[in-house]
Amino acid sequence: MANKTSDTCVCSNSICTTSMPLEGCVLAIRRYTDVEHDALVKLSQHLGATVQENIVPRSTRRMLATTHLIVNAAKCNAAKKWHLPALSKK
Question: Is residue 33 part of a domain?
């Protein structure tokens, strides 16, 4: 997880008092219907997250390393393998 800065919460487990609590987080949102996926992307971006389609274990020149995965149960194994926090609708 990234560290906090003085005026923003950056991908922390603490309660955040800023308007961008997911700033610094890189999310991959997988295996949702178009409507659910679009809503999750918009909400995540509104809260300050960067959203990518791919799960990336390490940053590259083109992609940032994924910090969190929002997924249905089928993709949780990838999250466990790469030690990523995973959230599902269950």
Answer: yes
**Is residue 14 a part of any domain in this protein?**
no
Domain count of the fold of the chain: 1
How far is residue 72's CA from residue 87's CA, in Å, rounded to a whole number?
Answer: 8
pTM as predicted: 0.70
Question: Among residues 81, 80, 75, 85, which one has the least CA distance to residue 53?
Answer: 75
Find the CATH number of the domain harbouring 80. Answer: 3.40.50.10190
pLDDT digits (tens), the chain, 90 positions:
343 333 444 455 555 556 789 999 999 998 888 999 999 999 999 999 999 988 888 999 999 999 998 887 666 777 778 788 887 776
Half-sphere exposure of 50 (CA within 13 A, CB side): 14
